[in-house]
Amino acid sequence: MKKTTFFYCINFVTIVLLQSIGYSQVGINTTDPKGIIDFNSSTLGVVYPNVALLGTDDATTVVNPQGGPIAEGTVVYNTNTTNNGLITDIYPGIYVWNGSEWVVHYKKRQSELHNQTTMLRTEANFSGGYQDIPGLGISDAKTFTAKYSGLYRIEVKTNFAGGKTESNSSIFVSQAKGQFRFFFGGTPYFFETTAFSAYSNYINSGKYYEGIWKESYETNYVTLTAGTTYPFSLSFDAYDAPGFIGNGSTGPTKVNLINENFESYTVVQTYTPDPECPTAGWVASSAANQCSFCTGKTLNINANDNTNCQQNATAKMSFTPTVNSVNISFDYRFREKSSNYDRFRVYLHDGTAQVGADLVNLVNTSGNTSYYGSLAVVAGTTYTLRFEYVNSSRGLSASVDNVKVTEVSGPISNEGRGYIGNEVDCQIEFTYIGE
């Protein structure tokens, strides 16, 4: 039946064209064509040939019936999707051949570029492990809101360079190395990078070659939902660098004021006892439902979806800085109970009042990630880092691990330290590529 219908349709169009051979225009459903061919209908559309292109450079799937190359201006509807991370990737839509490639028409567009804001000198022995990339770090609270539902390409462009190497009486070459950690929507993506620095004793009585940039790319494809906002961040962990001055880091001494993984820990807290709850406030144990980066024992609290359990507990970890700035990092997970009031909050307290804004404040919102930030403090003052959990009815749980509070002191030297960003900053680019 389809072949017969198609046969008659071809014949109809052929007759129309033959009848109009003496004229310069052809009209279908009209006797007054306004162009070389005029389709007149208020309810019907023109259906282009459906083909599955292999890419925008595909010159073989569509053929010229007269032989030879595809005619410029050939129009098709592509049904295929490729996501190879190449500029030739395609998605469903109308494409026109321009003589060398297929060009998409009526393209849905969304592209956002987020840049590093200032240079970062990395440290191989950084106390928090990962250092935030300025303007793109966890503390910057960056987000991306998808305009469309469908496939997005996320490309992380990074630059890394080594610092100053050791020297000798000849030529010395060393390799610096580290790992980027890109968080998107709570999912971590890791990729490594390397860079080389050198020293030559034969040039100008000794010359260092440092800051030689190495560019790296990490491309991920994710399916997003229109109108949804996704948090993201970028940080870097510089590895130890043998052969570099100071093993890749020179300058201030790192001091751990708190370095706790809760394997052996006595919890200090204020809480309201409730025998209906599975835990007596915060406890250090190997409980289930831990955060993604937590191992072994954690500081955790559990209401277990119990109607009668009403937990209200605040764990306190004290420290006294000797300088006016500290770095704070920790991993955490909060499992909220939908439609019930439960809360997880982390903040700094100086014994009289809260200091600064909340580090974390989740109310009826789940979280499973890491925190890192630098906070201003007053040297000699005793502070407490407080983890507060509030559950008025049928809450679930929270867990915390790998809590570090560190300070640095002493002179800073740039000689042995690695570098990230400078002339070309780290960038994160989000691009919509189709359904």
TrEMBL record:
Lineage: superkingdom: Bacteria
Protein name from the UniProt record: Uncharacterized protein
Lineage per the UniProt record: Bacteria, Pseudomonadati, Bacteroidota, Flavobacteriia, Flavobacteriales
